[in-house]
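Input.
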Amino acid sequence: MDHYQYEFEHVMGKDNIADAASRIGGKREDQLFDNGEELHEICAVTADTKEINSQLLALTNVQVREEFAKDNELQEVAQWLNELKRWPSNIAKYQAFQQDLYMQDGLLMKREKIVLPTELHSRALSLAHRSHPGMSTMKHFLRQGLWWMGMDRMVEEFVASCPECQLVTKTSKPLPIKMTELPKNPWEYVSMDFASASDSHNWKALVLTDNYSRFLVAIPMDKTDTDAVKRVLRRIFNTYYVPKTLKSDNGPPFNSTELKEWLKDHWGVKLIHTTPLNPTENGLVERSMQGINKITAIAHLRKDNWKEALADYVVAYNSWPHHVTKIPPAELMFGRPVRGLLPDIRADHQQMDDDELRERDRIAKFGRNIREDIRRGAHDLQISVGDTVLVAHQKRDKAEAVYKNVLHKVVKITGEGRATLEDMTTNKTFDRNVKHLKRFMERPPAKEVVDNVKGKV
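Output.
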């Protein structure tokens, strides 16, 4: 608004539209104020003048001169500008810049830049950050005409603690991928998830992958409710026997108490869940989805029966040598060679030594993890129990903030970056992976920021 020129026009009182109160007659007024009802005082909303100036009004040379006259530290610096001996300890930090400091028009200058008095630091930062520039841009903008001790550090702290910038800027990075050990035996630890498509290519299948042998099972499904999953799992258990542990995501119906109790009570199977919105924790079965999605897409393209195409793919996948173990999953699963569609001249079958298998698995995972960590920019955990954090939106529009405008406290952190959070408004708790969190930096009062910077100089 400072950039506009204004013209003021006087309007006579008789031409103004009267407000409601002025239209009330005397009798009506007496009735209102004589009925014995309790009256409520209307108070005007006011704001401190200094606060308004710091947020809205430009900073002028006149105001800088006024504050310079009140700033004891800069006044003492001005008195010592021509002294060659050691300066007093309270201003000794300025002596390194003695050749660059000089007085001009009542202002202390440093190489054509105004040395800003301490009282105006916070106001200058607020004005420079009015349109929320980044740290580098804000530093360059301030350096055009201003300087003070520790200015860069104050800019960094000011931008990093801006509530609005924290909500709309995504800075969280995933944790490095954790090396996982193979289970002791085949079909002991099994991962499961749904494969599906929507729109005109509507199909669903329950997919299970054995974490030891990589043996794949995929069963088409018409429904994905709890009862349907129980029927399919019963069929799979009766065919391949019962695993010790099933791992799934946290979506329905896997998160139902009924399914968890049914697995535990009827089959002795432990059902564990990944952290919500973090499919990489169930990466083995997620990787299987790529081949399944590809073969079903080809089936629709060729107008083939997708269920038959899926069944053929599963048989073929289990008979192909796996890229990590170099052994067909079915061979590791059942401990014997399996026949495929091509001739096999192997006379004898030699079961791979378990130690050799684990070494291959370890080497392959190590190389993959290094590549993925570099690609994703992964870093070690930077969030601790007790931190106040922001939580990313699950789904958002481009114009919407990256993080929810609600503060949460970290209650617990467990393996694979699972953090238990407490909503500081409702006190409800839930889990998220740390890659969806950002530590919230609360902006300290202006004087405290200045004192901290002075202590670090």
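The first helix runs from residue 26 to 33.
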